[in-house]
Design goal:
By secondary structure, the chain is α/β, with parallel strands linked by helices. It has helices spanning 4-21, 35-48, 63-75, 86-101, 113-117, 121-124, 142-147, 171-183, 199-202, 206-210, 236-248, 257-269, 274-294, 320-332, 368-383; strands at residues 24-25, 79-83, 105-107, 129-131, 154-158, 187-192, 215-219, 230-234, 301-303, 311-316, 335-336, 342-343, 353-358. 45% of the residues lie in helices and 14% in strands. The strands form 3 sheets. A 7-stranded mixed beta sheet has the order 2-8-7-6-5-3-4, with helices on both faces. Helix 8 (171-183) links the parallel strand 5 and strand 6. Helix 2 (35-48) crosses helix 12 and helix 14 crosses helix 15.
């Protein structure tokens, strides 16, 4: 008899296979590909551009250095350092700031990545403590930062806040929050894993957004389609110390050219497209809302109502297993609308599940009617 874990693994494998093979999908995710196909795409891109005869990197030179310089330019910082993971990059950044401020306390949201997905690395590895100016499913307000009773040395803002629904403040709200932190003599660090796509919501270019912070971490695989990797950008002295800590953490890898090349490819090809993805995500969200309303769905949520980025959440009143099975059935018929579903976050209505929707290049081909038809077909799998 199969165990529950084995059954879940079978569903995951079947869903990944169906998503990879589906001719119609809203977005391409990195796990959808195959090893040979992904390496071939990257090699073809490198051969067609200036990297055909580029020597391989050794301990961070060559294409890795080029990524660092490109990120520094994109964000308007003096320097940047490449890291194999964002978890490492942020630990390093925040322990460096703690040494400078003399305060190991980091103010951040309880739904921020370090609190949700890093197994308490801040406290167990970096000897940092965290405090929460708010528990509301949004970034803290200026008053919450200003009036927070516990002293802190660094304010970390995740932009967008993924586990709250990829939500962002307004530009005025963001500048006010940063000013409130400055009033407390705290430094400001942006968890900018998905900062690349915030320009539409803020109505500002990346350098102006990043200039609000003392340091910024960015990811290469979440929105830019890279294989892996991250970068930490900031002042030269901070980045020099970060490189030292990167070595101590085991992050100075002998060669990283596949990840570095895929990062450069993402910066060249995906970064300019992100505003179009954000705009079309709003079309997709509106179409899904209309489809659920027309179908008489007893309860649903599109969150945010107008997506702040090219990603948003859908909430439906069914068990996650049933919704994932419907996603799989629809994908096996050739249409990948939704992917895996999960129980709603704490505080959500009972019996409700949620999934994340992303819109990237494949989704630009979908009209609103295409989305509505796919949603009707999906709901039909639930009724069946």
């Amino acid at each position: 008899m199969e165990t529950e874990n084995e059954t879940d693994q079978d569903v995951t494998a079947a869903l990944r296979r169906a998503l990879r093979e589906a001719p119609r999908k809203l977005w391409d995710a990195s796990p959808d590909g195959t090893v040979a196909a992904r390496l071939r795409e990257l090699a073809d891109w490198a051969a067609a551009g200036p990297y055909a005869d580029t020597p391989l990197d050794i301990y961070g030179d060559g294409v890795v250095t080029e990524v660092e310089e490109r990120v520094a330019r994109e964000l308007g910082f003096p320097a940047a350092a490449f890291f194999p993971t964002g978890t490492m990059a942020q630990q390093v950044a925040l322990r460096c700031w703690a040494g400078r401020t003399g305060n190991p306390v980091v103010a951040l949201h309880p739904l921020a990545h370090p609190e949700m997905h890093e197994d308490q690395a801040f406290t167990t590895v970096a000897a940092l403590r965290t405090t929460h100016p708010t528990t509301a499913p949004r970034l803290p307000t200026a008053d919450e930062v200003r009036d927070h009773p516990e002293p802190f040395g660094t304010l970390m803002l995740e932009l967008p806040l993924r586990d709250a629904g990829f939500v962002l403040p307004t530009w005025d709200e963001l500048t006010e929050v940063v000013e409130a932190a400055r009033e407390r003599d705290a430094v400001v660090h942006f968890d900018g894993a998905r900062l690349w796509e915030t320009t539409v919501r803020f109505g500002r270019a990346l350098p102006e957004i990043a200039a609000l912070a003392d340091s910024v971490y960015v990811s290469f695989y979440k929105s830019l389609g890279g294989m892996s990797g991250a970068a930490l950008a900031g002042p030269e002295d901070l980045i020099a110390e970060a490189r030292l800590w990167r070595h101590r953490y085991g992050g100075d890898l002998f060669q990283q050219y596949p990840a570095a090349l895929s990062a450069l490819r993402g910066l060249e090809t995906e970064l300019p497209r992100l505003p179009a993805y954000v705009a079309h995500a709003r079309v997709v969200a509106d179409a899904l809302r209309e489809a659920f309303e027309e179908a008489g769905t007893p309860w649903f949520r599109v969150h945010p109502e107008q997506p702040h980025t090219h990603q948003f959440q859908i909430w439906l009143p069914y068990a996650p297993e049933a919704l994932t099975a419907a996603s799989l059935a629809l994908a096996e018929e050739g249409t990948a609308l939704f992917r895996r579903w999960f129980p709603a976050p704490a505080g959500g209505p009972p019996g409700v599940s949620t999934t994340e929707v992303t819109v990237s290049a494949p989704g630009l081909e979908w009209t609103a009617e295409d989305v509505k038809k796919a949603a009707r077909d999906f709901l039909g799998k639930l009724d069946g």
